[in-house]
Inverse folding.
């Protein structure tokens, strides 16, 4: 482990101390020689956590890794950069032992554990790279921004688009007023790519009832009840054994973390199925809007909406609907008039074609963003607004801060930006920091899920239902001002959660 003298080392803020040289007319040259002394830990090393931990390990010394899946943990530990890292299944134990020695931690857990793990790290003075969405709930997003400001730690949400020169240029273009007076914003996504929709929960009792019904139907009239019971018992026993084997490697209690208790079921929650559940995820909106709204959020002032309304294919207050449409309304500001933002999720669910045809767009991408002004439109055909074109107007010459360039892609660039911020002692170097960008952006996005909750009634045969009740929102105080149905304890948890014992919120 690096010596504690690195604290003084990390306090240097000069360009030379950061490991850069700047030649006239050139971009900064990258070197990790000055930051490789930082101690790194990772919470979640499977899925996206696999690449996040690998990216962080390029720049620092990995002292500890944590994952609730022991197989994933052990596999990661065999990697060259992780073989000396101590392994944990509960991040609280990891922080108890190494918290004072960790400089930067990556948090790549299911959505519901982003907030608890990140808060615990920041309160120990650890700089955090937390995957999007920043949190599962609105209050957590605001709290993370507050704690980041209070502690002065450096932060970055895993949002690769902020590390693209093209998306930064796009922000500068729209901010320049090239589109004229802004009128509306649209985003549409081909997510979800995981299963979600009503009636998906399962446990052994439900499985037994389902198996009994199916076996009885298959055996037909006159079947021996004792034989049916034997078959069902065998099926249930086999499933129980499968669950037991899975729980030998999976720390299910740590996976649940702050969430209400429920039984583990193979393939329903772990791994990468969490986003389809209200208790653990944030749906397609939470998954992709953090990427897709990067440019419009920064350039159109999409902050503190006053209302939001949704329609959906229907949900059961347990799993998110298969598809939804959401309309956010933002108040007038000194820079623009009141403006709506429309969100569409599920492949093929897009804004009306006339919205695009007005600007000569005939072949609409599966995911994308459209910002409409009185003079022209901004159209992006990817998830990060990195590929874009202006319609009806010409690009202006604009100035913007170039992104870090490690030569290893924008995912690594986004990670490196946090390390450079830490090295320089300047949290604002990280463009997706919690204070200015990630916290307020996540607040805005997650409000949409309150409207989805209020639009539980879908249409016939899985079609889109009618518009649910409009949610009127007091952004300053994080309160729904109109609907009593959204002030129940369960819905209140979508705004401000109650953590299970052993975890700290406030």
């Amino acid at each position: 482990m690096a010596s504690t003298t690195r604290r003084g080392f990390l306090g240097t803020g000069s360009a030379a101390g950061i490991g850069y040289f700047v030649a006239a007319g050139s971009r900064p040259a990258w070197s990790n020689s000055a930051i490789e002394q930082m101690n790194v830990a990772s919470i979640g090393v499977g899925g996206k956590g696999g690449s996040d931990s690998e990216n962080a390990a390029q720049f620092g010394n990995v002292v500890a890794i944590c994952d609730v899946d022991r197989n994933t943990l052990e596999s990661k530990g065999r990697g060259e950069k992780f073989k000396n890292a101590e392994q944990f299944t509960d991040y609280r134990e990891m922080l108890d032992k190494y918290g004072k020695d960790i400089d930067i931690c990556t948090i790549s857990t299911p959505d519901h554990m982003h907030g608890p793990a990140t808060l615990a790290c920041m309160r120990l003075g650890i700089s955090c790279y937390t995957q999007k969405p920043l949190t599962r709930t609105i209050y957590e997003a605001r709290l993370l921004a507050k704690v980041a400001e209070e502690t002065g730690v450096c932060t970055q949400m895993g949002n690769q688009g902020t590390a693209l020169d093209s998306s930064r240029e796009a922000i500068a273009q729209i901010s320049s007023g090239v589109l004229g007076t802004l009128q509306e914003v649209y985003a549409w996504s081909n997510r979800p790519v995981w299963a979600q929709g009503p009636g998906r929960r399962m446990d052994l009792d439900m499985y037994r009832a389902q198996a009994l019904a199916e076996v009885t139907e298959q055996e037909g009239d006159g079947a021996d009840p004792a034989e049916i019971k034997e078959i069902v018992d065998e099926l249930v026993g086999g499933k129980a054994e499968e669950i037991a084997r899975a729980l030998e490697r999976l720390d299910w209690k740590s996976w649940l973390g702050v969430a209400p208790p429920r039984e583990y079921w193979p393939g329903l929650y772990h791994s990468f199925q969490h986003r389809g559940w209200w208790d653990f995820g944030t749906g397609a909106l939470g998954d992709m809007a953090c990427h897709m709204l990067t440019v419009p959020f920064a350039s159109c002032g999409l902050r503190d909406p006053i209302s939001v309304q949704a329609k959906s294919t229907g949900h059961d207050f347990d799993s998110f609907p298969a598809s939804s449409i959401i309309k956010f309304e933002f108040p007038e500001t000194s820079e623009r008039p009141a403006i709506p933002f429309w969100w569409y999720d599920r492949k093929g669910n897009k804004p009306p074609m006339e919205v695009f045809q007005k600007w000569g767009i005939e072949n609409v991408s599966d995911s994308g963003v459209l910002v409409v002004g009185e003079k022209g439109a901004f159209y992006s055909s990817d998830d990060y607004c990195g590929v874009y074109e202006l319609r009806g107007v010409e690009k202006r010459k604009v100035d913007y801060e170039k992104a870090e360039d490690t030569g290893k892609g924008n995912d690594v660039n986004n990670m490196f930006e946090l390390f450079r911020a830490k090295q320089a002692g300047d949290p604002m170097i990280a463009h997706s920091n919690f204070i200015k960008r990630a916290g307020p952006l996540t607040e805005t996005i997650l409000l949409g899920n309150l409207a989805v909750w209020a639009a539980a009634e879908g249409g016939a045969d899985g079609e889109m239902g009618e518009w649910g009740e409009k949610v009127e929102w007091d952004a300053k105080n994080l309160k729904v001002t109109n609907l009593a149905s959204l002030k129940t304890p369960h819905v209140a948890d979508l705004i401000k959660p109650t953590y299970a014992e052993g975890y700290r919120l406030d």
In short: The first helix runs from residue 6 to 10. The chain is about 35% helix and 15% strand. The chain has a mean pLDDT of 92. The first strand starts at residue 39 and ends at 43.
